[in-house]
Amino acid sequence: MLQKQKRLVSYIVVTLIITFIINIAITWISRSTRQEIDYGTFLTMIQDNQVESVKIEDDRLLITPKENGSDKKVYYTGTLNDPQLVDKLHTAGVKFSTPVKDVQWPIVTFILTWILPFAMFYLLGSFIMKTLGNRIGGTGAMSFGKSNAKVYIEKKTGVTFNDVAGQEEAKESLSEIVDFLHKPSRYTEIGAKLPKGALLVGPPGTGKTLLAKAVAGEANVPFFSLSGSNFVEMFVGVGASRVRDLFQQAEKNAPCIVFIDEIDAIGKSRDSKLGGNDEREQTLNQLLAEMDGFDSSKGVVILAATNRPEILDKALLRPGRFDRRVIVDKPDLKGRQEILKVHGKNVKLDSSVNLREIALATAGAVGADLANMVNEAALRAVRMGRDVVRQDDLFEAVETVIAGKEKKDRIMTEEEKSLVAFHEVGHALAAALQKETQPVHKITIIPRTMGALGYTMQMPEKEKFLISKEELAEQIVVLLAGRAAEEIIFKKATTGASNDIERATQIARQMVTIYGMSDKFGVMGLESIQNRYLDGRPIQTCSTETSAEVDREVLQIINNCYEKALSLLKDNMESLCKISSHLLHKETIMGDEFMDILNSTRV
Ligand code: ADP
Ligand code: MG
Ligand code: ZN
């Protein structure tokens, strides 16, 4: 909306300036070359034989005097009803003529005098109407929300399924909708009713909005989009009227796609405990009514996206409304590789780039993260003065997104630095010396802006979907080995291990409460996950007594793992010290370098 107004304003300003310049130019030209004289002077000039020629126009006489050759001044005077003028000119031997009517001039004059002012007034008028209209819309009661939906129409989204990578299942379910929008008759003839709406469900950044646009792009139909929060306003009734309006417009423009992003903003279950919200409920009711009311055979398909499907009102999800659910989940290895490929197309990649490796290192990342990483890598390449993106740019970008930027100027004391080095090597050794763990990719003690003083990056060799109890236990050992190394070498505890401890405890707790991996509780579920697509926070479903026992179980797992970490490192003291001093000296070492030293110290 704002942008449209800005464009209009600048258009008007430009028009005004142009008109102004034209006017000045015309006046200036006529001023400098023409001069008005009175009729008497003109007659005198004829008598004095000073006139070379006369052009007789409708309303004036243009007089070209003789001599003064360099100065091409032209005089003019009005026409008097002077019947003898022609005789006078003829006898004086003056050339005279009346111009043959030029075809162009009347048109130009017409445009200047009629079309231009008209166009300008029209533009000005519509501009004023618009600003005034908005004002009224904002304060009055009647014209509320009278169509804000218009603003979000995209005739062509320009996005196709090719731009969405790694969501094959989602694309497959949506391709039926695309087909329906292409040839609605094929479905209606046989008597099939197509779903009125589909709900895209998944964590943030996985490409739900992008997919909806791609559906419109593939079907080549207009795309009406509104975010759920656009419907909810201060005043009761606004949202409902917007919904009505949106559907009216959509029916007019059928076939088309209506997309309601973040639908949980209006679709929240009405029986929530936190007290009602009249405006939201009205909006939701209107939406339900509209969805029942419209005729899907016309080719209007409603898509909606949310990352909190569990809070949606049941009425929204019943057949005939959003009865289809398209899961847009976090991409797997292959999906991540494809997303990187799609975004890699926009930047110049060096031939050395191996996207599979990057995909391996980014387990859990969503499309938006990956797009961001590719961009960070390109930025880094520019910063380094290169014109192609290399593999190390990409790796650095992954680390930047995960851990923040390098912070080289942070000053740490020698002791702190060596403590961090031992801590990290502790992690790395625990990872390398156990069977089921992921190989070490990189160890660094350069601090990062997001708080880490150093870190050890592990990289899986392939993607895994199932993790065993043993692997989880080994992960905990790796996490606790940092603190174990500090304890063995420096005989003290520091705050540096807080994040490790938090993650280790979380894994141990999940083993007990969710995965059924404890001896005491067996396969009993003690927690359930809420908001699966957002933070995935678990809520306890057991009694307080059980909860206390859970804590004891967790503590036992943690203690066992910590003991294991301690003994693992004590058995490999030589490796620990050698690699740590090497790391302290070089600040960053890669996985193979690490393995070389480890192997050389172990034989
Ligand atoms: P959501 O709506 O699920 O939160 P978006 O659709 O807004 O996520 O995605 C944000 C951006 O992330 C997109 O504009 C796109 O650049 C990138 N992206 C996300 N998922 C994908 C994907 N599957 N393929 C390609 N790019 C993606
Ligand atoms: Mg979105
Ligand atoms: Zn650590």
TrEMBL record:
Which positions does UniProt annotate for ATP binding? G202, P203, P204, G205, T206, G207, K208, T209
* Residue intervals of the AAA+ ATPase domain: 194-332
Q: One GO term of the cellular component aspect?
A: plasma membrane
Q: What are its cofactors?
A: Zn(2+)
Matching SUPFAM superfamilies = FtsH protease domain-like (SSF140990), P-loop containing nucleoside triphosphate hydrolases (SSF52540)
Q: Does the keyword Coiled coil apply?
A: no
Per the UniProt entry, the Enzyme Commission number(s) are: 3.4.24.-
Oligomer status and interactors: Homohexamer.
Q: Which family does it belong to?
A: Belongs to the AAA ATPase family.
**Job description of the protein:** Acts as a processive, ATP-dependent zinc metallopeptidase for both cytoplasmic and membrane proteins. Plays a role in the quality control of integral membrane proteins.
- The protein depicted here goes by the name ATP-dependent zinc metalloprotease FtsH
Gene it is expressed from: ftsH3
